[in-house]
Design a protein that fits this description.
Elements lengths: L3 E5 L8 H10 L4 E7 L11 H8 L5 E7 L3 H10 L4 E5 L6 H10 L3 E6 L17 E5 L15 H11 L5 E5 L6 H8 L3 E4 L1 H4 L4 H9 L5
Parallel strand pairs: 1-2, 1-8, 2-3, 3-4, 4-5, 5-6, 6-7, 7-8
This protein binds D-xylitol-5-phosphate and zinc ion (ZN).
């Protein structure tokens, strides 16, 4: 299965965000990943619509927005207006998930659901025919640069089996590097978020290559 890479800008050099986005694009990433945090759903605050707009106005890459916020339903229209191509929200956020998916689709955007590490695989069952993406957190949401939770491999395997032949990507997020991507890919993931590994590497081209190709033969 081809590995697709979504570059998380959370750990990019934000003072030079435009250059960082260019660097990632030239290195061959498939998407840009926006980690939106509200200080309530997760114990950290990152960035929101204005940063998304600045980037999406200046890049044709797919904007993969990951909402780690309470009440995503309220903010979906703002993120779509400012350039989101896909919006993934957390099943644990408290809003009605069906309604949130419907809202995202109604605005012409791809919808995804995400699971924190403690949420079991079976939580995705009611939504399998409703979404285009399922995101499994492989760290506790809130911060970049954490270590991959190997015990999530089992959950990735279970969700891959549930997805079956449906046209739905299985995204993993947190602690992805050339070693951990092997495990996640072997378990069935096909879309990989990478933040610190990419943006802290000297040679981002080589870093993308090592994720996309490393050991996949
Ligand atoms: C964590 C975020 C991740 C994070 C990934 O809450 O959802 O997308 O930026 O960063 P790394 O690759 O450094 O673990
Ligand atoms: Zn993320």
């Amino acid at each position: 299965m081809k590995r697709r890479i979504s570059a998380s800008i959370l750990n990019a050099d934000l003072l030079r965000l435009g250059e960082e986005v260019q660097r990632a694009k030239q290195a061959g990433v498939d998407m840009l990943h926006f980690d939106v945090m509200d200080g309530c759903f997760v114990p950290n605050i990152s960035f929101g619509m204005p940063v998304l707009k600045a980037v999406s106005d200046n890049s044709d890459l797919f904007m993969d927005v990951h909402l780690m916020i309470q009440n995503p339903l309220r903010y979906v229209p703002d993120f779509v207006r400012d350039g989101a191509d896909g919006i993934t929200f957390h099943l644990e956020c408290g809003d009605d998930s069906f309604q949130t998916i419907e809202k995202i689709h109604g605005l012409g955007c791809k919808a995804g659901i995400s699971l924190k590490p403690a949420t079991p695989a079976r939580a995705v069952l009611p939504f399998l025919d409703e979404v285009e993406n399922i995101l499994i957190m492989t760290v506790e949401p809130g911060f970049g640069g954490q270590s991959y939770l190997h015990e999530m491999n089992e959950k990735i395997r279970a969700v891959r089996e549930m997805i079956g032949r449906r046209n739905c990507t299985l995204e993993v997020d947190g602690g992805i590097n050339p070693d951990t991507i092997q495990e996640a890919a072997a378990a069935g993931a096909d879309l990989f978020v990478a933040g610190s590994y990419l943006f802290r590497s000297e040679d981002i081209h080589a870093a993308v290559r090592s994720l996309a190709e490393g050991g996949s033969h």
